[in-house]
Amino acid sequence: MDQQPTIDYRLLVDNMTTAILLVDSNLNIFYLNSSCEALFDISLLRASGQPVINLLHAPNDTFNTHEALLNTLKSSQHYTRREATINVNFKDIHVDYTVSQLNTGKPYHPLLLIELNPIDRMLKISKEENFIQQHQVARQLIRGVAHEIKNPLGGIRGATQLLARSLNDPKYAEFTDIIINEVDRLRNLADTMLGSRQLPSYEDVNIHEPLERVRSLIVNQTKKKIKIIRDYDLSLPDVKADRDQLIQVMLNISVNAIQAITENKEFFVEHEPQLMLRTRIQRLVTINGVLNRSAVRIDIEDNGPGIPEDILESVFYPLVTGRAKGTGLGLSIAQNIMHQHNGMIECQSIPGKTVFSLYLPWESDHVAK
Ligand SMILES: Nc1ncnc2c1ncn2[C@@H]1O[C@H](COP(=O)(O)OP(=O)(O)OP(=O)(O)O)[C@@H](O)[C@H]1O
Ligand SMILES: [Mg+2]
């Protein structure tokens, strides 16, 4: 008879989509698997030894989590909570979780096993798919309009130049100049609306390189008035990407942050403005409907007033702007570039903390949904 293959159980547990937490008899975290690290955005190293209650209990939850956990520890009766709220990075997440006792064979060292299933993930995926479709329709519409605007502009410009020449009178030159300047402005706008016509040219990119380029551009632009903090994970692998397009994405997002800071100086009475650039590995992330085992994440975070609430949901749509002089194209173009890279941009914003997270999958690490 064939021998049974040996299974590396640690590997198995780390590849499960269910988040798993092991808790010791003092209700401190003993172990969490990769899904759990991703769910709570915390590493095993940082989490172990911490009271589990810090992760599992949202401040406004009326359920007595501590007592329920102690009860299972004592009585070995398992329990399940549905649609419980946990708070991760200021954001409420809804999970179903089951707590049961793990029999370790040692009577005085019972462990609790907590299995968590986020229910928002499914919601988020369908919301994302909807969003991508709507975004594509909106972009096509915009491109169509931009194209139609651009078509007659060449003719108007040429005719105005002819007119200026045949009039040959400085009295009218002022008016023909206005027409030409406005036509040029409109053409530039239409070009931005059309977006880049070039397909990305992919190469191996260490994302810290474009990020540093953007940082130095911002330092120059802001004359060091905004503190820039770097928190890089230098062990990140290279990704296949178009370097120049990545710079454009990072720049569009950073410039928005700088504008939000400089145009709302009254917000900074008690704290100084700052921009944080952070890089991380993100495990198990669904991007455009594909579950990736790992992706590179770049956070661009500012402590400005936040995105106005009325445009928060639609901020990636073209022509959505909260600024008097904004065209509302920066984020739409950035999201488009990231989609071409099989990546995405996510955004969370409350006054004092706005984070744009860029995700780029590792090419070799795709797994089916
Ligand atoms: N970090 C941020 N803090 C506050 N508001 C932001 C931030 N980033 C974006 N926004 C809001 O989102 C809107 C849309 O941004 P987007 O870059 O798409 O367009 P825009 O900046 O208005 O115009 P442009 O086409 O010149 O970039 C902004 O007008 C602003 O109101
Ligand atoms: Mg912008």
From TrEMBL:
Q: Which GO terms describe its biological process?
A: regulation of DNA-templated transcription
Which domain of life does this protein belong to? Bacteria
Which molecular function terms from Gene Ontology are attached?
Answer: ATP binding; hydrolase activity; phosphorelay sensor kinase activity
Question: Any idea which UniProt keywords this protein has?
Answer: ATP-binding, Hydrolase, Kinase, Nitrogen fixation, Nucleotide-binding, Phosphoprotein, Transferase, Two-component regulatory system
Stated name of the protein: Sensory histidine kinase/phosphatase NtrB
Asked if the record carries the keyword Cell cycle, the reply is no
Q: Which reaction does it catalyse?
A: ATP + protein L-histidine = ADP + protein N-phospho-L-histidine
The record's EC number reads 2.7.13.3
**NCBIfam families, per database record:** PRK11073.1, sensory_box
Q: Show where the PAS domain sits.
A: 9-76
Residue intervals of the Histidine kinase domain = 144-364
**Which gene codes for it?**
glnL
Q: What does this protein do?
A: Member of the two-component regulatory system NtrB/NtrC, which controls expression of the nitrogen-regulated (ntr) genes in response to nitrogen limitation. Under conditions of nitrogen limitation, NtrB autophosphorylates and transfers the phosphoryl group to NtrC. In the presence of nitrogen, acts as a phosphatase that dephosphorylates and inactivates NtrC.
What top-tier enzyme class does this entry carry? transferase
